C-alpha cells in the first residue's frame, strides 16, 4: 500500500508497503458490484447511509451495480425499503432481511448477515457510513472475511485508491487497497454530503428482494440487547445538522448546560459537547464531538467555553463557519475560528437568547 500524506501548509510524502500476504489477489480493475449496508429509522434511510450510497455511486465504473442491504423487522423496514428503492438512480436492487434478529442494532448478527449476503453476491466493495453502527459492524465483517477494512474514507480517487485523515485530521493520507476482495470501506458522511438534488431523483424504482435467511444461524450467546435510550427533545441529528451549538467544560454542570440546549433550540440547531463536558456528566456521550466522538461539518458551528484541543478540532474543523466564545484570548479555538468573541459565556448566551427571535 502506498501512502501519500498531505500536511496542511507543507506537503510531505511517505510510502508504506502492505505486507506481501496482503498484496495478493486483487487487480486494480473494478469487477462489478457494490453492497451498501444501510441504516434506517422511522421508515426512511438515514442521511449517513445516503452518503454511503453517494460514495458507492462515485466509484468509477459505469457498468457496476449498487445493491443496498436493509435489515430489521416490522412495517417500518418495508417503508424504508420502498424509500431506498427510489432514492438514487445508482441503486439496482434493495435487499431486505426481515427478522427479529435485526430488530436491535447488535453488531454480531448484522456482521453475520452481511457475510452471508457477500457469500451469495460476491460484491467487489462493501460500504457503510462511519457511524457508531458502521464502526461496530464493519470491522467484525472484515474479520469474518479476513480482509483489512479502509476506514473513515473522505475521498475516492479510483476504485481502490482512497483518501482518509490521519493524525487526528492533521494530515490526509492517500491509500491504495491491494488486499483480497471485497474492499470494505467506511465513509465519513460529511465528505459525501446529501442534497435534495442528489437523492429522490429516481423516477423508476429499483427491485426489492427478500434475503433468504433459512441458513442464517443466529448466535444469541455472544451479545444481548439490553436497552436503548434517546433524548426526548428531538432536535436535528448531530451528524447532519446545518447548525451545531457546542458546550465545553466551562458550562460547569448539567443544569447550566441547559443554556446551550436553549440556544440550540432557538437556532434549530443540534447540541454538541466536548469530551470534558461528557466526562463531567453534563450530557450523554452520543453528543461528543471529536476524535473519539462524532465528526461534524455543519454550515455554522458555535463553540462556547471550548478550548480547542486537537482531539476536539478533529471532529469539527471542516465546519464552514466557526464561531467561538471563550474568556481566554489565547485559547487555541480562536486559531480555527472565523469569528471569535473574548467574553464570559454566562453573559453572552443569555444576551443571545434575549435578542434572538423565537424559532417558528
Ligand atoms: C485519546 C484522546 C481522545 C480525545 N477525544 C476527544 C474528543 O473526541 N472530543 C473532545 O472534545 N475531546 C477529546 N479529548 C479531550 C481533549 O484533549 C480535551 O481535554 C477536551 O476537548 C477539552 O474540553 P473543553 O474544551 O471542554 O475543556 P477545557 O480544555 O478545560 O477548556 C475549557 C475552556 O473554557 C474556557 N472558559 C472557562 N470559563 C469560561 C467562561 N465562563 N466563558 C467562556 N469561556 C470559558 C477556558 O478558557 C477554556 O478554554 C481526547 C483526549 C484524548 C487524550
In summary, what is this structure?
This protein is of the alpha/beta class and 360 residues long. 25% of the residues lie in helices and 25% in strands.
What would you note in describing this structure?
The chain has 360 residues and is α/β, with parallel strands linked by helices. The chain has 2 domains: 3-210, Rossmann fold, CATH 3.40.50; 243-354, Rossmann fold (3-Layer(aba) Sandwich). Helix content is 25%, strand content 25%. The chain has helices at 47-57, 75-85, 107-121, 132-145, 254-267, 275-279, 310-313, 333-336, 345-355; strands spanning 3-7, 11-13, 33-37, 40-41, 44-45, 65-72, 91-98, 125-129, 150-153, 155-158, 161-166, 171-176, 183-187, 207-210, 243-247, 270-273, 300-304, 321-326, 339-342. The strands form 4 sheets. The protein has a 7-stranded parallel β-sheet with strand order 9-13-8-3-6-7-14, sandwiched between helices. Strand 10 (155-158) and strand 11 form a beta hairpin. The longest helix has 15 residues, at 107-121. It is globular. Mean pLDDT is 87; it is low at 1-31. Residues 34-220 form the Electron transfer flavoprotein alpha/beta-subunit N-terminal domain. Its cofactor is FAD. Belongs to the ETF alpha-subunit/FixB family. One of its GO terms (cellular component) is mitochondrial matrix.
Amino acid at each position: 500500500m502506498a501512502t501519500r500524506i498531505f500536511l496542511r501548509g507543507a506537503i510531505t510524502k511517505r510510502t508504506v508497503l502492505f505486507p506481501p500476504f496482503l498484496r495478493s489477489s486483487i487487480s486494480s480493475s473494478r469487477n462489478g458490484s457494490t453492497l451498501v449496508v444501510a441504516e434506517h429509522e422511522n421508515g426512511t434511510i438515514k442521511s449517513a447511509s445516503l452518503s454511503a450510497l453517494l460514495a458507492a455511486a462515485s466509484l468509477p465504473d459505469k457498468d457496476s451495480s449498487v445493491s443496498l442491504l436493509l435489515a430489521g423487522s416490522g412495517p417500518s423496514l418495508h417503508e424504508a425499503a420502498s424509500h431506498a428503492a427510489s432514492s438514487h438512480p445508482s441503486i439496482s436492487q434493495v435487499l431486505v432481511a426481515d427478522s427479529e434478529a435485526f430488530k436491535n442494532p447488535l453488531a454480531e448478527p448484522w456482521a453475520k448477515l452481511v457475510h452471508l449476503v457477500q457469500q451469495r453476491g460476491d460484491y467487489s466493495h462493501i460500504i457503510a457510513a462511519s457511524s457508531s453502527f458502521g464502526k461496530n459492524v464493519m470491522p467484525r465483517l472484515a474479520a469474518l472475511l479476513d480482509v483489512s477494512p479502509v476506514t473513515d474514507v473522505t475521498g475516492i480517487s479510483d476504485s481502490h485508491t482512497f483518501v482518509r485523515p490521519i493524525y487526528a485530521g492533521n494530515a490526509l493520507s492517500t491509500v491504495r487497497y491491494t488486499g483480497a476482495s471485497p474492499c470494505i470501506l467506511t465513509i465519513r458522511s460529511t465528505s459525501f454530503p446529501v442534497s435534495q438534488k442528489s437523492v429522490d431523483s429516481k423516477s423508476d424504482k429499483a427491485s426489492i428482494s427478500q434475503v433468504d435467511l433459512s441458513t442464517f444461524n443466529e448466535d444469541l450467546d455472544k451479545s444481548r440487547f439490553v436497552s436503548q435510550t434517546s433524548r426526548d427533545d428531538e432536535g436535528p441529528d448531530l451528524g447532519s445538522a446545518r447548525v451545531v451549538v457546542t458546550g465545553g467544560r466551562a458550562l460547569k454542570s448539567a443544569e447550566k448546560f441547559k443554556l446551550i440546549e436553549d440556544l440550540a433550540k432557538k437556532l434549530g440547531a443540534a447540541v454538541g459537547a466536548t469530551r470534558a463536558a461528557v466526562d463531567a456528566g453534563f450530557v450523554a456521550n452520543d453528543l461528543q464531538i471529536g476524535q473519539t466522538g462524532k465528526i461534524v461539518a455543519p454550515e455554522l458551528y458555535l463553540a462556547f467555553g471550548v478550548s480547542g484541543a486537537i482531539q476536539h478540532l478533529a471532529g469539527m474543523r471542516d465546519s464552514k463557519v466557526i464561531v467561538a466564545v471563550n474568556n481566554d484570548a489565547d485559547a487555541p479555538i480562536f486559531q480555527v475560528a472565523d469569528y471569535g468573541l473574548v467574553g464570559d459565556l454566562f453573559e453572552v448566551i443569555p444576551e443571545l437568547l434575549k435578542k434572538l427571535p423565537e424559532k417558528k
